[in-house]
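Practice problem: predict the structure.
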Amino acid sequence: MNPYAFVFFWLLLCQSLAVWALPPPAMATAGEGDLLFGMSTALSGPAAELGQEMRRGVLAGFEAANRGGGLGGRRLRLISLDDGYEPSRTAPNMQQLLDHDDLLAVIGNVGTPTAIASLPLIRRYRTLFFAPFSGAGGLRRSPPERYVMNIRASYAEEISTMVDALIEKGGLQPRDIAFFTQRDGYGDAGYVGGFAALKQHGLRDEQQVLHVRYRRNTLAVENALADLLMAEHPPRAVIMVGAYAPCAKFIRLAKKSGLDALLLNVSFVGSDALARELGSAGEGVIITQVVPHPKDSQLPLVQDYRRDLAKIDPSPPGFVSLEGYLAARILLLGLSRVKGELTRERLIDGLEQLQTFDLGLNLPLHFDPEDHQASHRVWPTMLQQGQVVSTTWEHALRQWRKVDEP
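Answer:
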């Protein structure tokens, strides 16, 4: 076993044993005051913008509801704690949040390794873990785990969309595609999903797939890039599963070093932050998204988002905050379906009763007891002149061929 994986597994095992050694908590109810929700997220460190943006979107949704009188006259309130995108800080934060007897749910936590660290406490306190900013398969069991409900498409779905486009529209072979991933559960989830997609296109030998990694919360990407540059069969496309700062550094160095490959990122990278970090160096980089374009789309929900965001914060709209806003709106819809006393368990029942619904995305979303992932849609975007722009796979691949061909 990889030594990093062994240490991470051991820490999680110890944490889980410590949690289960405690007596079970009493059933939580919402009481009569504010409706209380929690979030443990990255508000500092290299992934801080992701946590700040997710929080901003959730708050935009909550405050819009509060301006309309809240839910039956009760205001929605969010407690946000900083974990710096480090699992060791997440568990104490989650314990602090869940010790609030009237906390109804945890919403919008950022990251896969931090989500993994949260799950033992979520299960023990029998509390909803709603719309985590992660596409990891471990949060998407079949049948679904009662206390985990997702909004976004999975990393496997994002990467499968990339692989299908690269092979079916771009003419690449499975062995032409490499992976640059973060060395933790997030990166591993992306790679596992990517390898499964390549197998669907005929790949049989994992040794044919170039897979390089970097350590979480660092910018140490040089060795990973060197491995790609020195490969016997250099990649023609690199799928990146990382945070914006190390991915930006990798992209800059890759282009300076002459790596002749199309570079693609999953949504977690933080598109707006990546675009700012790269400037003109990001030209042609592809990023898959799990929500529509927050600035260009005229869909009713996206227009609501821009209006409600502007009332709490003058900062520009972004993909991550739109995802947070969508999470808040769906949560509010689930709250409105609760019958009788509002409890943690009845909130989950209310969301499961939504079945198929559309909040203004021209896209059917769905929750029921057997399906805890509302959306499976993936949108392609690309970086052009320092901006994130909507695109199609056909257009993005044509642009790449113009540069790639002599």
